[in-house]
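debug: dumping io for the single-chain case to check the tokenizer round-trip. Nothing else runs in this session.
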Amino acid sequence: MSEPHGIILKASDFQVQGKNVFVNPNKTGSVPGMLLIHGFFCHHCVKFMPTFNDIADNIGNGYCCASIESEELKGQDALTAALNFQGFPTICFFNQNGMIMGQYDGARDKSSVLDVICKSYHHCIENHQ
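debug: decoded output
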């Protein structure tokens, strides 16, 4: 599997506050973004990684693509429970303060993911339809 592009996160880059999870805004540049939780062992993650990398390479300034590998979450029970992910790959979106706003459960193709980014965050890549 190819390595994810964008910002690679560690468990220490997250903070759990009650039911909310925050990505350190110093790591993400205090801009909204997409978080990919993936496993190198996961066939679905391997299949999605080129799409994630294409988005990360082309999204431009003002939006962040970040990822964390599932091995980094081992032993991080509070973080894993707060993220509440059910499988791989999990895609979440976070705001400019780093707060994870929810999980994406739509299609895993570039156009569908970019459509959510464009509609939710008003950050578009031209011709993504």
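debug: round-trip ok. The mean pLDDT is 90.
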